Amino acid sequence: MQYKTIIKLEEYIPLKIIFNEKDKEIVEYISYSKDKTSYLELTVGINSKEIKRITLLLCKDYSEYPQNLEVNHSENTKLNINKGNYECSLFKTILYSNGVKIVVSEKKSSKYLKMDKVYLGISDLNEIAEICVCDMSKSELNHLKRELQ
User: How would you write the chain as a 3-class SS string?
Assistant: First the structure.
């Protein structure tokens, strides 16, 4: 499937990414959280199992690096996401000069699935370990940083 990514800048929401906005389907929600200080929500189509929206609502642990975010070895393939609410032992957001990496697992990514400018880092156990968003504009990055503070 060809993905069209839209990053919406909304007050009080650090990052909201919408895929194929006109594609309407009944959805279910998958969440990743750490304590009550960090929360990420994936909205997934019930039938297609495709990610429709990624929303970062909170992240207490964030840092900035001046270099560019680069993702290698990406694949265009479908991921079967297991629904549920996941409590993470590690949850951090790293701001780069051109994008952001949201880490939701201590497991390392062994491959990346490409969805336009979003890359899902997948562990050896086929679980989401991180989400990378590349080629973000300065206004998108400034909004993200301001809402995380």
Answer: CCCCEEEEEECCEEEEEEECCCCCCCEEEEEEEECCCEEEEEEEECCCCCEEEEEEEECCCEEECCCCCCCCCEECCCCCCCCCEEECCCCEEEECCCCEEEECCCCCCCEEEEECCEEEEECCCCCEEEEEECCCCHHHHHHHHHHHC
